[in-house]
Design goal:
Blueprint: H1 5-12, H2 16-29, H3 47-54, E1 58-62, H4 68-86, E2 92-95, H5 99-107, E3 115-118, H6 131-138, E4 145-147, H7 158-165, H8 168-176, E5 182-186, E6 188-189, H9 203-211, E7 214-218, E8 221-224, H10 233-237, H11 243-247, E9 251-256, H12 262-270, E10 276-280, H13 281-289
Parallel strand pairs: 1-10, 2-3, 2-5, 3-4, 5-9, 9-10
Antiparallel strand pairs: 6-7, 7-8
Helix pairs in contact: 1-2, 4-5, 5-6
């Protein structure tokens, strides 16, 4: 049974302001706890139907948890399963980095002898792993050969990036993205808190990219709402797989979490390289509600 502050005040003969003060004191003392529970918004979304509407081969939906970490863990297990599903002997598989994919690498239990290519340079994130650790984790499986990208994802300027691209080891890894059999990437939105790259550049570049139409970020590559690469300074400073290379990859699994990334996912889908979309229930519901605009 629920009662308003006015109703409680009337019952005890005090003012609603006194009720509010007592509640604040009770919260501070730990006598009262407020728990917010969100319903599972995407539980009614049918993956096959959503895949048809969005124009991808498969949609995988994982539960939205009580917090981001719980949701991310569920998505990591599914991402690991998808990586193992697309792997086959002697395949060349590419994988980018995100918090979810970092967790996913730890849940991969079996890979056939194959080549694993790091698709994006290192991007240190406090409290998380990095792309080099991810690739090394996958390389522990017997017969798996890894191709690390020995460079940061974002460097200081275009000249530095171009110089690094000419280094033999880096050039070899980036070149192997031309012949991927499958790839697993993450989708970010070009706004604070929704892209790990956002915090690695200054405000001038953030605004420049936004004004150029950036709404999505995938492996450091920015896309506009139409799914086209954004022409900004960041494009020349990134060491990662290109949109064109992903478009020539037969199978691409894209991972995204949270309704706030809905527009970014739509943009990435319009780029035409995603074959399997892995989302949580919340994002599935957002995509389902406005899927007709895709």
């Amino acid at each position: 049974m629920h009662h308003s502050k006015v109703e409680i005040a009337r019952a005890y003969g005090i003012s609603r302001f006194q009720v509010a003060r007592h509640l604040e004191e009770a919260l501070a003392l730990g006598i009262v706890h407020i728990d917010v529970h969100f319903p599972a918004p995407g539980s009614g979304v049918e993956p096959g139907r959503l895949a048809d509407i969005l124009g991808v081969e498969h949609v995988r939906i994982t539960p939205t948890g009580a917090d981001d970490l719980t949701t991310r863990e569920a998505m990591a297990h599914r991402a690991a399963a998808e990586l193992m599903a697309v792997a086959f002997p002697n395949a060349t598989l590419g994988i980018s980095w995100s918090r979810t994919l970092d967790l996913a690498a730890r849940h991969v239990t079996d890979l056939p002898p194959s080549n694993i290519v790091q698709l994006a340079g290192a991007l240190p994130v406090p409290g998380s792993g990095n792309s080099l650790e991810l690739i090394q984790s996958l390389g522990r499986h017997p017969g798996v050969k890894t191709w690390p990208l020995w460079a940061p994802l974002v460097v200081e300027n275009a000249d530095t990036a171009e110089s690094l691209r000419r280094q033999p080891e880096i050039a070899d890894t980036l070149g192997r993205a031309d012949g991927l059999d499958a790839a697993v990437v993450a989708v970010g939105a070009w706004m604070p808190g929704l892209s790990t790259v956002w915090n690695r550049v200054d405000n001038r570049l953030r605004l420049q990219a936004a004004r150029a139409g950036a709404v999505a970020e995938c492996s450091g590559r920015l896309l506009d709402a139409a799914g086209q690469p954004v022409n900004s300074e960041l494009e020349d400073r990134v060491l990662a797989v290109t949109v064109s290379q992903l478009q020539h990859t037969p199978k691409v699994v894209a991972v995204a979490q949270g309704a706030a990334r809905a527009d970014a996912v739509r943009a990435v889908l319009k780029a035409g390289f995603v074959t399997t979309l892995l989302v949580d229930e919340e994002l599935a519901a957002a995509l389902s509600g406005e899927a007709g605009t895709v």
